Amino acid sequence: MAVVKLTSSNFEAEVMKSDKPVLIDFYAVWCGPCRMVSPIVDEISEEHEEIKVCKLDVDESPDIAQQFSVSSIPMLVVVKQGKVTQYNVGAIPKSEILQMLK
């Protein structure tokens, strides 16, 4: 499944009303650790159809980043049934990201 690019206009429908667990990657194009995590998030999207994987550029959607209290990136957030169930700040390996989703 392709990664969904989140914006202020599609956030509610794609994340809060999703019937699947959602993994959100909060990132910025200038962030080195974000560039390390991004291919891992892409892999998870391809390998796990049961999870909706999304990315949100904090510079393009600062309102949503603020709503989630993003102060450092990369920040990975798991949302299930409209509620945050897990989050992690900083670059982490694939195994830890998958553990967040369990």
Quaternary state reads single chain
Instruction: Tell me the name of the CATH class.
Output: Alpha Beta
Strand order of the largest sheet: 1-3-2-4-5
Task: Let me know the CATH homologous superfamily.
Answer: Glutaredoxin
Major sheet details = 5 strands, mixed
Alpha carbon gyration radius: 12 Å
Structural domain tally: 1
CATH topology: Glutaredoxin
| Corresponding CATH architecture | 3-Layer(aba) Sandwich
The chain-level structural class is alpha/beta
The overall pLDDT average reads 95
Relative helix content: 25-40%
- What is the count of DSSP helices, taking H or I runs of 4+ residues? 4
**Shape, principal axes of CA atoms:** globular
Low-confidence stretches: none
State the order of secondary-structure elements, H for helix, E for strand.
EHEHEHEEH
